[in-house]
Amino acid sequence: MSDALPGVSYIVTIYNKAPYLAGVLAALEAQEGGFPRQYILVDDGSTDGSGAIAERLAARMANAHLIRQDNRGPSAAVNRGLAEAAMPFTHIIDGDDVLAPYATKILLKAALASRCGAVYGRNTWYGAPEELRFPPEPEHLPVTVLEDALYTIIRIGHAGGSTYILDTAIFKSVGGADPRVFVQDQSIPQRMARACKIGLIDCLICMGPRDEPGRLMKTPVQQQHDQSLTALLTLRDDPDLAPRFRRLVQKQVTGRAWKYAARHDGASWASRYFRLFVAARLPFVRLSDETLEATLGAFRRSNDIRLMAPSAAGSAAGASAGAAPARRSAARNGP
To answer: Do 293 and 236 share a domain, yes or no?
Structure first.
């Protein structure tokens, strides 16, 4: 294998990240490895001046440009950047995550050595600025290639913002992030797992601010909703998946809905969600698509869940049978 590393397109998704952008972009420019790079900054309708800051910073960077769009959410921001990606690999960066100096280099080497189309590392959080520091670069870093990758990814809910690198051609071939789902974290590994090998490395790739209120980890209801929605769409998109996939998904979405409804809405054992939870675990029971989609209503009843436009979302992302309509929120919409 040649020592030369292939180029990387960085897609930086930005929504109200003004305090962090300078540090995030400085860390990208400081990435070790000498590989060609392209910086695509996507301002997803920021209202805190992030767009102006990104424009000023991009003007000082080589091969960087800023895209501005009305607020459409992280999946749409990723796909808008992907349309401009010209390098062999793509690294998606949340607008407040800081990469370790060796992060992209290590991910590239792992992808090339393992011939994986996607390689994921891990992240952590920092509070005070002095906590933002990384350990030395590891000398030996084996790649764990997931067996039965799609099943494993659905089972463990694998995601990981800013911690992964993707083969650009493969990522484009699967359609990028699922445009029917607001949050991109679940759809990307599920889509990639259907097209290529997925690798994992035990290496700290990035750190994000623990107390940033705009982080999606601060909205677990949206994440749970989109985790269920993504799995349901995976079933819809590939009806030839083995029955064990449907068994897994119906157990997960009914369990997730029942636990949420019981904890937050006081749902009892007499509720529909509990009945679905039980039915999903009975031998030889196959719940219909419409019944499984109805579990999304547990999250939509009393929360500001962001949904994609019906034209993009399709059946499973719209209001399902028995599901209360979701309220649209402009307050919690950033990557």
So the answer is: yes
Task: Tell me the residue range of the domain where 154 lies.
Answer: 8-212
Over the stretch 222-256, which tens digit does the pLDDT of each residue have?
999 999 999 999 999 999 999 999 999 999 999 99
Same domain, 123 and 169: yes
Are both 184 and 280 inside the same structural domain? no
d(CA 71, CA 38): 23
Instruction: Quote the CA–CA distance of 281 and 171 in Å, as a whole number.
Output: 34
Whether 33 maps to a domain, the answer reads yes
Residue 31 half-sphere exposure toward CB, CA atoms < 13 A: 27
Q: pLDDT, tens digit, for every residue of 110-152?
A: 999 999 999 999 999 999 889 999 999 999 899 999 999 999 9
Q: How many other C-beta atoms lie within 10 A of the C-beta of residue 213?
A: 10
pLDDT in tens, 29-76: 999 999 999 999 999 999 999 999 999 999 999 999 999 999 999 999
Question: Measured between alpha carbons, how far is residue 67 from residues 37, 50, 150, 247, 273 in Å?
Answer: 17, 12, 32, 42, 43
Residue 219 pLDDT level (bands cut at 50, 70, 90): confident
Question: Please, where are the H alpha helices in 101-242?
Answer: 103-114, 149-156, 168-173, 187-193, 220-237
Asked if 96 and 17 touch (Cβ cutoff 8 Å), the reply is yes
